[in-house]
Amino acid sequence: MKPKHVLVLPDQLTDQVGPLSSGEPGFTSVLMIESRAFADALSHHKKKLALVFSAMRHFAASLRENGFDVIYLQPVDFPQGISEYLSIHPGVTIDLMEPSDWGMRGQLVDAAERAGGEIRVAPNELWLTTNEEFDDWATDRKTLRLEYFYRAMRASRGWLMDGDKPSGGKWNYDADNRQVPNAGHRFPPVPRFEPDETTQAVLREVNDSWPGHFGDIDDFDWPVTRTQALDALENFLEYRLPMFGPYEDAMVDGEDVLYHSLLSVSLNLGLLHPLEVCEQALKRAEDPTNEIGLASIEGFVRQILGWREFVRHVYRTGMPGLRQSNGLEAQRPLPGFYWSGDTPMRCLNKCVEQVSRSGHAHHIQRLMVLGNFALIAGVDPVELNDWFLATFVDALEWVVTPNVMGMSQFSDLGSFTSKPYAASGKYIDRMSDYCSSCVYDVKSVSSENSCPFNSLYWSFIDRHQERWTTNHRMAMITGVWAKRDMKVKSQILERADDVLSRLSQGML
Ligand SMILES: Cc1cc2nc3c(=O)[nH]c(=O)nc-3n(C[C@H](O)[C@H](O)[C@H](O)COP(=O)(O)OP(=O)(O)OC[C@H]3O[C@@H](n4cnc5c(N)ncnc54)[C@H](O)[C@@H]3O)c2cc1C
Ligand code: SF4
Predict the structure, then answer these.
(1) For ligand 2, what atom is nearest to the CA of residue 346?
(2) Exposed/middle/buried for 170, CB within 10 Å: 0-12, 13-18, 19+?
(3) Which of left, alpha, beta for 22 (phi over 0: left; psi -120 to 50: alpha)?
(4) Which helix (H) or strand (E) holds 474?
(5) Which domains does the chain have, with CATH numbers?
(6) Atom of ligand 2 nearest to the CA of 348
């Protein structure tokens, strides 16, 4: 049998698919690279570095146990790692699954060529949909919208379908999924995965090597092996999937997870495959004794078959422009409290504190608090994108960039969304209990103590009103603003100026 060489990237930790799935123990040499340049590039959350490195080392150990020869390197960067490997195995061809991050393929292929070897790239099989499937669907479409992509993908797989009709008669149960739990609602506990010796060693290394990086290192409990990832999946299916839908958009002070899955962490490392996640969820939902309502299972499948796949194709087809876009010409530097959490704005303080502690916040916290504030305050989207890339344990370029630049900041002017996700404090008050213990008054728009989100929201509408009049989803609210009394408008805009000036002085 001919020896085989496989490069396994940090977000491809699987032997179930790709070149490694046909590797033979004894005949396959595996290269894994822990890049220092990656860790140095941004102030990555210490827990994120620990998660990635620990998961890689566990995966390397499991391959060795199965008889694979693993060369695990800690070079300056990926090109140097490839060059070191090719000095051990001169002139060989290394198989690789297509990297998800833009530019990575070229970087690796060039490095191998320079070092006298070759990299052969196979399709990335860690997705539910293929490039061809998306490209065929997207051809001749004027606009790319998740809803239609998701419907097409669901229909082609027959998931939650009655013949050619969606189960229950509706494609979308979003309207049922905007409930807020009553005070005192008890959420199911979330499993903790205690660090073993390998993880503890990584935690010490990370703390010693990057002490100034963002976030707390204590109480690390993320899953780092396939077995743990499967346990996390099982726990979600059993205890949180039944209620996933109704409270999907809610935010509760002191509750990090609610009924969310936390599965992005394992999915983005390759420890779980999105197909097995969806199939297992669908199977559970088929059994009526599990009491998983249609709004919950549909909501969950929409996130994975829909959003997760959709944004990665948007990224693939929109780069490199998407990463640099700034259509709203937002120039303000990222406020310091995104790093320190030091602000009396309760919603932002609590979300940053949560991210600093755990490396995670759920979708509505990311979109409607952390993203929304930056959007309406006119923060430079590239700076915000880097912040999201650094601070979340599940952050990878392919998923952060479309979500931040496109969905959250509208910096691409709507290449795949129909309106900016801008909102006043009213939305945050409706969907959370943050405002009741905030020093600011969410009901007031222009008083000295008014919620900063309120005046900033209207000044955002005002700043871009010409643009919004041609956007059918923003035209109505822009019309409301235009008709408001001039005196009231100028009071609101004055308060927005005051808020922005305090923001610039680090006093908000
Ligand atoms: C500004 C912003 C930044 C984001 N950054 C990231 C990120 O760094 N990494 C990341 O994986 N997701 C990111 N998302 C998408 C989404 O917020 C997270 O996937 C989700 O919060 C992860 O938590 P969960 O696993 O508990 O999700 P759940 O609510 O349980 O959802 C289930 C799964 O659906 C997928 N999903 C849901 N929404 C999206 C989406 N918009 N894009 C891609 N996948 C989605 C995820 O894989 C997630 O695990 C971001 C969204 C926004 C608005
Ligand atoms: S009042 Fe405003 S700043 Fe305070 S928590 Fe509510 S939305 Fe956030």
Answers:
(1) 5
(2) middle
(3) alpha
(4) none
(5) 4-122 (3.40.50.620), 131-188+240-318 (1.25.40.80), 337-504 (1.10.579.10)
(6) 8
Does the CB atom of residue 434 touch ligand 2 within 6 A? yes
Distance from the alpha carbon of residue 330 to the mean position of ligand 1, in angstroms = 24
Ligand 1, atom 17: closest residue by C-alpha? 363
Cα separation, 355 vs 343, in Å, equals: 15
The pLDDT score that the predictor gives to residue 305 is: 98
Distance from the alpha carbon of residue 375 to the mean position of ligand 2, in angstroms: 16
451 CB near ligand 2 (under 6 Å): yes
DSSP 236-281: HHHHTGGGTTTTTT-BBTTBS-TT---THHHHHHTSS-HHHHHHHH
Average pLDDT of the segment spanning 394-399: 98
> Which of 388, 491, 380, 505 is closest to 444 using CA atoms?
491
Is any atom of ligand 2 closer than 6 Å to the C-beta of 250? Answer: no
Cβ(192)–Cβ(318) below 8 Å: no
Record the tokens describing residue 195, joined without a space.
């660090």
Residue 424 and residue 422: Cα distance in Å, rounded? 7
Of 239, 258, 300, 403, best ligand 1 pocket probe by most atoms within 8 Å of the beta carbon: 403
Dump pLDDT digits (tens) for 282-323: 999 999 999 999 999 999 999 999 999 999 999 999 999 999
